[in-house]
From TrEMBL:
PANTHER family: ARSENICAL PUMP-DRIVING ATPASE ARSENITE-TRANSLOCATING ATPASE, ATPASE RV3679-RELATED. This is ATPase. Residues 5-178 form the ArsA/GET3 Anion-transporting ATPase-like domain. It comes from the Bacteria. SUPFAM superfamilies: P-loop containing nucleoside triphosphate hydrolases. InterPro entries: ArsA/GET3_ATPase-like, ATPase_ArsA/GET3, P-loop_NTPase. One of its GO terms (molecular function) is ATP hydrolysis activity.
Length: 321
């Protein structure tokens, strides 16, 4: 599988949850993954029930088979100081610039600089090797910005490389884009079986393809189980008050006529939802992208639920446990 796994999705679809579960799923049989957060929301720390992540790579979980999950919340200001030290040897001078407010200006006002630093730090982790020449991380999973912004976010270094025709900035931007546009990278999109998220997913796939960015998989999150089979779904659309009342009476239910209306109402609502979900699956199928479904966790996503989703991902993606 690709070494840089970028996870995006419309707000509310659970992209951070899927990114965390994917990091756990990939960290199997002794493998090591790095889960990267770029939006400063500390969502990863909340999911793994740990303290807020500092700007350092910290082990936060052990996966089945002894794999390890590390996490990093990238801070743009610290990343810029790293960049200045790496390419210009401005350690003390960089810290002085921070005191003067120049670092804050560069990361909040200058267009694109923040995204350059965030993507650059993630790609550095992808390329990093130990003294024996082995990659430090088998996989890097990035919890990326939402679908509407992810193409520009990932493509920002192309723009920078075009603006800076030479020098370390140009070379760094090119190096980042070589990773992002290579087979090493896959950009996954998270959606729900609802019209707006599915349409945004389809638009996102089109934008990624137009920018020649590598489209990965679509993860349909929070899929609710079908409580009725196809025959029951079709029957729920009709008027079966008398039949339902007789069935309830035969089962020994007292005052069955009082339950008929609510039961038929719920059945009709379920049948309508099944029909709408079927339509959204058809839209996703037209995108010609591998699609995997993850179940709705009735009790919400806690640490146990995260491991359950990771197990589902391993099964769907064919990752050895």
């Amino acid at each position: 599988m690709s070494r840089l796994q970028v996870v995006s999705g419309k707000g509310g679809t659970g992209k951070t949850t899927v990114a965390a579960a994917l990091a756990l799923a990939l960290a199997t049989e002794g493998k090591r993954t790095l889960l990267v957060e770029v939006e400063g929301r500390q969502g990863i720390a909340q999911l793994f029930e740990t303290e807020a992540l500092p700007y350092e790579e910290r082990k936060i979980a052990v996966a089945p088979g002894g794999g390890e999950v590390y996490a990093l919340a990238i801070d743009a200001e610290r990343a810029l100081l790293d960049y200045l030290q790496m390419f210009y040897k401005l350690g003390a001078a960089g810290r002085a610039l921070k005191k003067l407010g120049a670092i804050d200006f560069a990361t909040t006002v200058a267009p694109g600089v923040r995204d350059v630093l965030l993507t650059g730090k993630a790609c550095e982790a992808v390329r990093r090797k130990d003294r024996e020449g082995r990659f430090v991380y088998d996989h890097v999973v990035m919890d990326a910005p939402p679908t509407g912004r992810v193409t520009r976010f990932l493509n920002v270094n192309d723009e920078v490389a075009g603006l800076a025709r030479m020098g370390p900035i140009h070379h760094q931007a090119q190096a980042v884009m070589r990773v992002i546009k290579s087979p090493q990278t896959a950009v996954h999109l998270v959606t729900l079986l609802e019209e707006m998220p599915v349409q945004e997913t389809a638009d996102g796939i089109a934008e990624l393809r137009a920018a020649e960015l590598p489209v990965g998989d679509v993860f349909v999150n929070m899929v609710r189980p079908h409580l009725l089979d196809e025959d029951a779904v079709r029957a729920a659309a009709g008027d079966h008050r008398e039949g339902v009342a007789r069935a309830l009476a035969a089962a020994g239910v007292a005052h069955p006529e009082e339950l008929v209306g609510p039961l038929l109402g719920q059945a009709a609502e379920h049948a309508q939802r099944v029909g709408l979900e079927r339509e959204q699956r058809e839209v996703l199928a037209k995108q010609q992208v591998p699609t995997y479904e993850l179940p709705l966790l009735g009790e919400g996503v806690d640490l146990a639920g995260l491991y359950h989703l990771a197990k589902e991902l391993r099964r769907n993606l064919g990752v050895s446990a």
